[in-house]
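Methods — Computational structure assignment.
A single polypeptide chain was analysed. Its primary sequence is given first, followed by the predicted tertiary structure written as structure tokens.
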Amino acid sequence: MNTNFKKFYLKVEKIKSAPDKNEFLPIFMMSLALFLMVSFGPDLVEFAKAATGGVSLSVTISPTLSFTMDAASKAFSALTVGTPQQATSTLFVLTNNGAGFYTSINRASTTYTLFSGSQTIADTPNGNNWTAPAATSTAGATAVWTTATTVGLGFRVMVSTDGVASTTCGAATTWWGSDDGGANAKWSGISTSTAAQKIADCNFYRGGGTGQTVIYKLDVNSSQAGGTYQSSPVTFTVLTN
């Protein structure tokens, strides 16, 4: 076998000066990275990763409602025919419900509210007997009270008590009149139905508490028998919207 030694040679060059540091640093960093990758492998890759996470929060606050009345019984002053007498009930409502609340009224019996033995007083002043329209309706069986002409037991919701009266928590002119005085106030009779009838609707948040006043008004004609009259129960109910 013949070997050609001419193909193998070693070339040595003389380095005249040290490499510039700007040339050396990138080479050094690449060598270091290669060394670390070889030495630590996947552990180094995991160490170099950035980990992030996020969370979205939500909560539901349950609605609360409390309701009290100023008194469980009310009395009219002694009545003289032709001179109406009034009494009031104030309802105190506290709720955190964002959609507000509504108030309804009903009585335990379909007979007349006020009675004395077999004698009764009508619940239909001016022929009106309250059956609630829808909360947004403009209808309402109400009318102004004409002294010496209007007789019977009537009621209305004050429109100026804390701005909370009826369909919009304000002066509900189509239900109870534009204000609480004289010819501008509208009245109706407590419904002869025992089903609860809506009389006010406060359709927004009232967290600070609300006083809602119901006014009763009474007059009779000259043929009404004298005596002390009592009522069957009248119930107010407050519910969240």
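Note: Confidence is low (pLDDT under 50) at residues 163-168.
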